[in-house]
Amino acid sequence: MASYLITGAARGLGLAFVQKLVALPAEEISVVFATARAPSSELEELAKESSGRVVVIRLEVTDEASIKQATVEVEKKLAGKGLDVLINNAGVCEYAMDGVKSMDNLEHSFSINVLGVHWVTRAFIPLLQKGTQKKVINISTTLASITLARAAHVLAAPAYKISKAAMNALTVQYALDYEKEGFTFMALSPGWLKTDLGGRDMADLTAEEGAALSLDIIRGPSRGLNGQFPRIYLPGWENSRHQYDGSNAPW
Questions:
Q1: Could you say which DSSP state residue 115 is in?
Q2: Is position 194 annotated as part of the catalytic site?
Q3: Cβ neighbour number for residue 130 with a 10 Å cutoff
Q4: Where are any strands of DSSP class E within the chain?
Q5: What is the pLDDT of residues 48-82, one digit of tens each?
Q6: Nearest to 46 by CA among 30, 23, 71, 24
Q7: Whether pLDDT at 154 is above 70
Q8: pTM exceeds cut of 0.70
Q9: Could you tell me which of 140, 120, 125 has the C-alpha nearest to residue 227?
Q10: Backbone angles phi, psi at 138, to 5 degrees
Q11: For the chain, is the Cβ count within 10 Å smaller at the N or the C terminus?
Q12: Which residue of the set 4, 20, 134, 160 is catalytic?
């Protein structure tokens, strides 16, 4: 039985992760810690119907005191057991419509997309060390790829791209530090999703589809994925513009 913790679980992809995980048998998923700075009615209802398998915890990823309190609550609930999987899903995408020179949101983007991931990860490392799977999944995007930057230039969100590229680099540093302990750290691209962050009109996939395809990777064999940048696999989309072929995206 695996235990999961998901940040940004009140809506979008985070909420879809919780829904998909709790739908699995209790013999496979024992508990899902669904964290958010402000829980939504959908998340609260999901927890109410989960027979205690979904535990909603307040966590603001930019507030270290909030993170510390969340670790205390999670540790108490685990009752001596470890945490198996951490999904750093909380993120922000802000725009600069007049190009990079008009970007005044880089600090805010870094605080959530980079520092938030770092602070949450290091706070939960002790519980992950006691877990059996030792997986940390940082939700990323191929928009952060420097190699693919020209193709993504049309989207006027430079702070999002830059901060997610930094998060990818952070992921690799953690991967190198903890590989000898059997950890798997990955920067996972879940596809272009119809969420508030991804946009609901033009995106390719629903949050539920993105969550299901991402969990195929997260719950699958971790061998060879430490420090990698995997894309989801969706049959028929291997040669699409976003190439959902299950390969590692270029940094």
A1: I
A2: no
A3: 15
A4: 2-6, 29-36, 54-58, 85-88, 135-139, 184-188
A5: 999 999 999 999 999 999 999 999 999 999 999 99
A6: 23
A7: yes
A8: yes
A9: 140
A10: -100, 115
A11: N
A12: 160
Which residues face 193 on adjacent strands?
205
The tokens of 2 are what? 């695996």
Both structure tokens of 64: 């270290």
**Strand spans (E) along 122-224:** 135-139, 184-188
Note the pLDDT of residue 204.
75
Is residue 233 part of the annotated active site? The answer reads no
140: exposed, middle or buried (C-beta count within 10 Å: 0-12, 13-18, 19+)?
Answer: buried
What mean pLDDT comes out for the span 220-249?
87
Residue 200 has pLDDT above 60, yes or no: no
- The answer on pLDDT for 224 being more than 60 is yes
* Catalytic annotation, pick one of 164, 174, 194, 244: 164
Residue with tokens 């969550």: 211
Q: Could you tell me the two tokens for 138?
A: 């940082």
